[in-house]
Amino acid sequence: MFQRLREDITCILERDPAARSSWEVLTCYPGLHALVLHRRAHWFWQNGWLWLGRFISHLARFVSGIEIHPGARIGRRVFIDHGMGVVIGETAEIGDDCTIYQGVTLGGTSLSKGAKRHPTLGRGVIVGANSQVLGGFTVGDNARVGSNAVVLKPVPAGATAVGNPARIIDAQADAVREATAAKMGFSAYGITQGDDPVAQAMKGLIDHAATQEHQITLLWQAIETLSKRPSESAPADCVPPDAQTTDQFNAAALSQLVK
Fold first, then answer.
1. What is d(CA 56, CA 41) in angstroms, rounded to the nearest whole number?
2. Are residues 65 and 140 in the same domain?
3. Furthest-apart CA pair in the chain: how many Å?
4. What's the rounded Cα separation, in Å, for the pair 25 and 12?
5. Phi-psi region at 189: left, alpha or beta (left = phi > 0; alpha = psi -120 to 50)
6. Could you read off the pLDDT of 190-201 as tens digits, one per residue?
7. What string of H, E and C letters represents the secondary structure of 25-62?
């Protein structure tokens, strides 16, 4: 028991820069309190003391603001950061080294008793604030769920799910994006800059439009230059009055709208 507690405290000190000491973590972190009480509630649940397990989980909810059903299976070194409003269902399974932020729901979409109704999180999964993972599917190892996402289908290992309903970002493409994001700074809560594929598509269209605008401007400038030197190939006054010979397209301003 004490070994698990030491592991929990150590993982919080490693992942939360606001944690200053083991004593502070032990006394002031509701995520830790909820997990310690859940282990006791889960033991009673597994041994047939169903009411007592539920009652302990109810007390844990009152103390920490985190509701974990005593039937849920939670691995080692799980960190529930802030924690207020987290709900973890009866058949949910959470792997080792996962991080869960406030307002997360690991919920079910089925009313069938005894069925696998809640999600399974693999090892090292990050679930961003206020996201909802609903259903009896698996979120693969080292996957991430972005803040406010609503996940209704499996997430492959190493991939990222963002949006409502969540869209899956390819793991290989996400690795390239992470390399770029690392140069721009760390983005917390399980989402990095540029994760939304819709925003990425819009940015691509804006960049393409800006490139075309620039090429058209260069063409008009070339025609204007030739028109000042009349010849058979480029007669004088061939540039219409409304021709745009300077770049006016503000791609940066439009890109800000989809960030």
1. 6
2. yes
3. 98
4. 7
5. left
6. 555 455 666 666
7. HHHHCHHHHHHHHHHHHHHHHHCCCHHHHHHHHHHHHH
114 shares its domain with 71: yes
In sequence order, the 6+-apart residues with CB closer than 8 A to the CB of 246 are 217
- In this prediction, residue 115 carries a pLDDT of 83
DSSP H or E stretch at residue 22: helix 22-28
Q: What is the pLDDT of residues 126-184, one digit of tens each?
A: 999 999 999 999 999 999 999 999 999 999 998 999 988 888 886 665 555 555 555 54
Cα dihedral 61, 78, 130, 134, rounded to 10, equals -90
Identify the pLDDT of residue 113.
79
Same domain, 142 and 231: no
Q: Coil, strand or helix: which one is 106?
A: strand
